[in-house]
Design brief:
This protein is mainly beta. The protein has one helix and 20 strands. It has one domain: UDP N-Acetylglucosamine Acyltransferase, domain 1 (3 Solenoid), CATH 2.160.10.10.
């Protein structure tokens, strides 16, 4: 379901895929070729949510903001794993946010990072670009390897292909 809130209408690129069971409310912008999967909730009711291009928000994710203080901003080619919670944070481009991760207000994840599954990033934490972060609370363990950087790109590419298959099926077109 896509709906406005207090005259603010979500703006979704025509190339994006939004599952019918996802909920997108208010001041939310979703970029080109991005995808939002079943039961994800993106709520831009009390501040804005910005999602870049070729970013995928997987099943049961919750993206929200803090009233007038912390918007949610995401770059391009980000994969957000199932059940992650992103609240009023900033995430650079080309990141993998693992399943069940929680990233809180005013936290910043640099570009080219992996946040491991189940990681908790507390408020005001800054994770530098190119980092592998894990734990509760999340801490930088090391720099990413070239293989891990390629994994981020493969994941984004896989979700682009999957998005296109879902769009084709919705239109009744055989890929």
């Amino acid at each position: 379901m896509i709906r406005s809130f207090q005259s603010k209408e979500p703006r979704i690129a025509s190339t994006a895929y939004i599952d019918e069971s996802a909920l997108i409310i208010g001041d939310v912008v979703i970029g080109e070729h991005s995808s939002v999967w079943p039961k994800a909730v993106l709520r831009g009711d009390v501040h804005y949510v910005r999602i870049g291009n070729e970013t995928n928000i997987q099943d049961n994710c919750v993206l929200h903001v803090e009233t007038g203080q912390h918007a949610l901003e995401m770059g391009d080619r980000i994969t957000v794993g199932h059940g992650a919670i992103l609240h009023g944070c900033r995430i650079g481009s080309r990141c993998l946010i693992g399943m069940g991760s929680i990233i809180l207000n005013n936290a910043e994840i640099g570009s080219d990072c992996i946040v491991a599954a189940g990681t908790l990033i507390p408020e005001n934490t800054v994770i530098p670009s190119g980092s592998l972060c894990m734990g509760v609370p999340g801490v930088v363990r090391r720099k990413l390897t070239e293989a891990e950087l390629q994994r981020i790109h493969r994941g984004a590419d896989n979700y682009l292909r999957l998005k296109n298959l879902y769009i084709a099926e919705r239109r009744g077109v055989q890929p």
